[in-house]
Amino acid sequence: MTQSSGGPVRVTRNPDRQRYEIWSGDELAGYSRYNERDQLTVFTHTQIDSAFSGQGLGSTLVRESLDDAVRRGRTIVPVCPFVTRVLRGTSDYDDHVRWPEAARHE
Question: What average pLDDT does the structure give for the chain?
Answer without folding.
Answer: 92
